[in-house]
Structures are given as C-alpha cells and as structure tokens.
Amino acid sequence: MEDRCTTVSTLTDKSSEWIIKVILIEKTNIFPGKDHNTFQRFMFADEKNESIQGIAFTRDVNYADNKLHLYRTYYIGNAAISAITDERNQAGSVPWQLTITKTTFIKQAQKQNELTLNNRFPLTSFWNLDKYKNNDSIRFNLLCALIQGFPESTISTARGPRTIRRFIAVNPECRPMIFTMWEPYIYIEGVQLMNIIHTCPIVLLIRPKITTYYGIDIATRPNTTIILDPPLQETASLQTWCHENRAYIQKVISQKLYEKINQKILAPAHTQIRPISQIIASSELIKNFWIKGTPSIVNIDQKFFIASCATCGKSTGAMIDIEFDCNFCETKDTKPKPKAKLQLNIHDDTGYLTAAVEEKYAETLLDMTAAEIYDRYTKQLPIPVHVINERIQKQTLLCEIRSYLPSQRQFTPLYFLTAFLPDQSSTHPVLEHTTDQKTPQSEGEELIHTITTSEDLITLADKSAPPATPSSIYKNSASAGSSTSHTTDVPDSPTPIAPPSAKRSLDKEFDKESKHQKLT
Predict the structure, then answer these.
(1) I need a surface site. Which of 206, 326, 428, 499 has the fewest CB within 10 A?
(2) Span 2-113: which CATH code?
(3) Non-local CB neighbours of 309 within 8 Å, separated by 6+ positions
(4) What is the mean pLDDT of residues 485-493?
(5) What's the 3-state SS for 102-161?
(6) Pick the residue with more confidence: 480 or 50?
(7) What pTM was computed for the model?
(8) Fold held by 266-422
(9) H and E: helices and strands count for the chain
(10) Bridge partners of 340?
(11) Structural contact between residues 490 and 173, judged by C-beta atoms closer than 8 angstroms
C-alpha cells in the first residue's frame, strides 16, 4: 500500500482513487452545532509535514471518534474533499478539508510504518506575539503552564451574551498573560483544567489568537485546539521549571503581573507606524494602529479623572464619596476610587488626532497620580496645563491607538491611547523618568533581584547559553544529571512599552462559526 500513497499537497476537490498516509496530530472533543447537530475536527499530517484538516458530522461522529486515535498513523482514502474559501477557517497547510464518514477508507498502519511526531508543533516565543495582535490569518503554537483559573463570566457581544473563562498562562520567558477560553471550550477543556489547576497543567495551544483586551493576551478562536499534557520533549522541561519556580509563580499571582498595567508591550516596527492623515481619511474603521506624534492638552476644562470601581476598575457614574453596587463585577456597597483620564491631541506632520488616555499613561503625562489629581479637584486647585504642555510637547511619542464607533456615532469614531513609548530619536526624552523602559532581559533581571535568596528563579538552560529561543527556553538540564539551579534568561527583543492602561475592550467580537450549546 505504501507505493500507492500520494502526498497531502497533491489533493484537490477533483482527486479520485487516492490514498494518503498520515498521522493524526489533532483531535477535538465532540462539539454541538446548529439544529442539534454535532461535529468533531481532526488534523492529519504526512511524512513531509503537510497537513490537512478533517471533520465528521452528526451521524458519523461516534464512528470517527472510535476509529481515529491521536498520534497513530493511518492510510486514508477517497474521503470527500471540499474547498476552504475563508482563510481564517483554514487550519492545515492546504486549503482543503476531508469529510470523514463510514464509507471513508481508513486503515491503521503497522508499527514499522508509523510516522513520528517530531517537529509537528513548532513553538512561538511569548516575546514574539506582538506582531500577531488582532490578526486572524497567522497560525502559531504556544506551550505554557496555566497557574490560576477564574470563575466563568458572561459578557455582551454583538451576537449576544457569551460565556468565557480566563486563566493565567506562564512559561520560562517571564511574560505572564491572560488566556481567555470561549465557548464551547469552557465546557470540556475548561472544566478539566479547573479540576487540576493546582498542579499547573501544561497545555499546547494550537492556532490561538492574540488580542489586546489585556494589553496583550491569548484567546481561543473557532479552530483552536487545546492539548493537555502534550507529548513533546518541552513538556517535561516546563513541568520541572514550574516546580522549581513556585516563588515566581506566586509572585505573578499576588502582584498580578499578568494585568495590563504591569505588562511590557513591545515597540512597533517602523512599517507599522501610520500617518495621522491616513487614519482620518480612511473610509473604513482602522481599529488598532500606531502613530508617532507630539501630545498636547487642548481642553483645559476637563476634570482629569473619573470615578471607577475599586475592584474591577470599570467606570461608574457614582460620586467618589458615595457607596454603590458595581454592575460589572457585582461588588456591593463599595466606594469608587478616582482614575486618571484626560483628552489630548496628538500631532504629526500630516494632522492631529484627539484621543482619550487613562490610568498609568494619563498619570505619566500629567506627572501626578490619580489621588493627587482628585485632591487638587476637591481643593479647587487647577491642573497646571500650560506647564504640562511645555514639558510633554518636547517629546515625540510612539502611540498605540484603538478606535471605536459607538452606535450613536455613525461616522466619527472615538480614539483611545492604550500605550505610548517615547521615541528614542527624540532629543528631549522628558518622559523617560516615569515611563517604564525595561527590555525583556532587564525585566527578567528585576524579577530575579526582587525575589529573596530562598526564592530564586530556576531555569533549565545554562546562563552561559545563547539568548533563549522558543526551543532553547525549555532545554532540560535535568537530563544531563545536573542538580544545579540557574536563573531564568529572557530572550532579547526591542524595548518594551510602559504598562498599558485603558480598561475598555474595543476588540472585534469573537467570530464564532456556529452557536454552541452547553454540553452536559
């Protein structure tokens, strides 16, 4: 049969009388679809590592589920082949999908003819994720440990309410992030992970997406696959790292290093910076973009703060000295706290853009904390806008902007400055003393020095080794028989941005393929 096999790359919807030899590298749970139907997805890869996705529907799901087992090799032939017209739905390396039915030829290969899993899941560094933000077409894989899970929550979307669950994801690169799991994953994988979350389970996330809800965070998409305890060499190394770095893991949780205000977002490439005139003139809403310009405060009558929930940070109309019930996190009888917020104009050579900025970035621009701003407000002391403008107008900033088009505004979007970084080419870097300018390497060094001697960060890679890569960060020194502990190296990368701020999510809502129902 070996001599009759073709490769995945040669298949089309016109192919007939074909057989491929493939290893099953992905297999989802059985998910509910529309009209009480069910489906299950598969991913097959041949010896050339070309992959093609498969799917089984309602009446064939149980057959396919029992017939096909993960990481085993099969000869498959004459399945129906259909084209994938939307590249966002393409999970394999070819734009085709196999429909698995009871009439599909499937025969398991003998042991001597089995394919291996080697190099089937190339891993991406956490420090390289910035370039994937809000991009639905790029495919990548992440290996991480989940160290804490949060209760399920329901959020409003353009398609109605959706249930999500959030986890904290870490790896030896010292860049903790939020991992948001959407339906239907929360009902099976989410429950499994919550049951063992105290063990810091290792997961392989295949084809996740990167969003900017929490500065930078990971989320599932409709064709994401979540593999618990994946059969990779790096899995054991990451488990060892988690066991030896309990102090760092507790630090991430207790100090909330995964939150937006504590994250380090990397500076954009030069090609990602847009002229302001291009943004203003665009007929389509550009939701996330970078600009370079000089800030100035024009509206001198603004309050420079808003009231917000002390628990979740969401804005509220309650007055600072009156207790209220938060409608977002459902905290009862709590008093709001002031949150810095201001409007400013950002100018470049082509025009200007008006944006709102909150929290740490607003405090940095004003050079005062939210408490100080509120104190001046209660004492009726004006904010010295002219002095602030003289200072900040000496600095050119790289600004990350989100745009949002409220329902009551059909043509004019609102803009939010969610991060900024002083331009290193500026001759007067006046904001550097308040804006975090750490590199990933210095971030790792600070984590090491802020943990006590008995809580040293441990790594599996030798300090004399070259900068970490997605594969080298999981190097298992234990296999060499060494019991020596080493501090964690974080890969070199461009200068990161100061902690992001704006709490409001402006991301495009999760694009679901079908309405899923809860599995029982």
Answers:
(1) 428
(2) 2.40.50.140
(3) 316, 326, 328, 329, 331, 334, 336, 337
(4) 40
(5) CCCEEEECCHHHCCCCCCCCCCCCHHHHHHHECCCCCCCEEEEEEEEECCCEEEEECCEE
(6) 50
(7) 0.71
(8) OB fold (Dihydrolipoamide Acetyltransferase, E2P) (2.40.50)
(9) 9, 24
(10) 305
(11) yes
